[in-house]
Amino acid sequence: MRAVLTLLFLLAVSSGYFVNESFAEVSENQAFLLEGSGFAVTEEIIRVSEIDLGLSSQDQRGSTINFLTEDGFISLDDKEFIISNLEGKFLREGKYIRINGEIESSSGFDTSISFFGRLVSESKDASVYGFTGRLTTSDDTYKIIYTTKLSNLTKIDSISSESVPSDETVIHILKYSSTQGIPDGTVPGQKNSIARLGFFSHDRISVEPGATITIVNDDLVSHNIISGKENSDRYVPFTPDGRISTGIITPNESVTITFDDVGFYRLYDPDYPWMKIVAYVFPSSDNLVLGTGQNLGN
């Protein structure tokens, strides 16, 4: 069993989270996303597990900063658990993370978790943590091994124009997002489409409840941005939740949307599911964004 856990750890630390890793500065009153994957192991089985949590840091006492878990999920293979009652701390100003509490399955059964993360690598906008711990269901107790990325949401300058109020956050749908890159022949000597990681000018935003954002379509086709729950199923990546729907946004047009409720929103285009934004809505926050996309079409 020890050899299996050692192998799984080596697999975890060799994952893509160590590519372009960066530093997420931990301080009070900040929003964070903790995203990662790994394995949940018993003596008999190994399950693929994912973690995706929205966090907000609170008060600091000495080198410890408490945080609240606002929203998110943990999965075991195709089974998802939503947040029920989790508490956590950043220890030694972010060198370690402790998460304890309960998550709830779709059938209503509580599952307890106890995770401890150690900072592995850091750079500009996020930090990589290795997590170990236990996940206890009604049937089994799993040892977990995760590689995760902690991303914080950083301030941007206000954007204003004659047609857009200066207190609104503006997000642009980037040109060629619908084709995942520049089409063949657009760039001299380029034979294949160029894939990119970002399809919006900002991939993640954090705003207060009641804030309004404007979405501008700079692409060549129409888009429809809605909110939903992200699934671990590659064939059905999202399930609409009915909270946000822009309707059709034709090329060169824009729409405004308002986030009325506190929570964790995932915005996506159902026709082009690789196009997605995370919106983190909670009180007492400046308008923040993370993940500026690259407009390869210009």
Topology:
Elements: H1 2-13, E1 31-41, E2 46-61, E3 64-76, E4 79-91, E5 96-105, E6 110-122, E7 126-136, E8 141-152, E9 154-155, E10 169-173, E11 204-207, E12 212-217, E13 223-230, E14 238-249, E15 254-258, E16 263-269, E17 272-281, E18 288-290
Parallel strand pairs: 10-12, 11-17
Antiparallel strand pairs: 1-2, 1-8, 2-3, 3-4, 4-5, 5-6, 6-7, 7-8, 9-18, 11-18, 12-15, 13-14, 13-16, 16-17
Count of alpha and pi helical runs: 1
Strand order of the largest sheet: 1-2-3-4-5-6-7-8
Order of helices and strands: HEEEEEEEEEEEEEEEEEE
Q: Please write the CATH class name of the largest domain.
A: Mainly Beta
Spans of 5+ residues with little confidence (pLDDT < 50)?
3-23, 154-167, 285-298
Task: Return the CATH architecture of the largest domain.
Answer: Beta Barrel
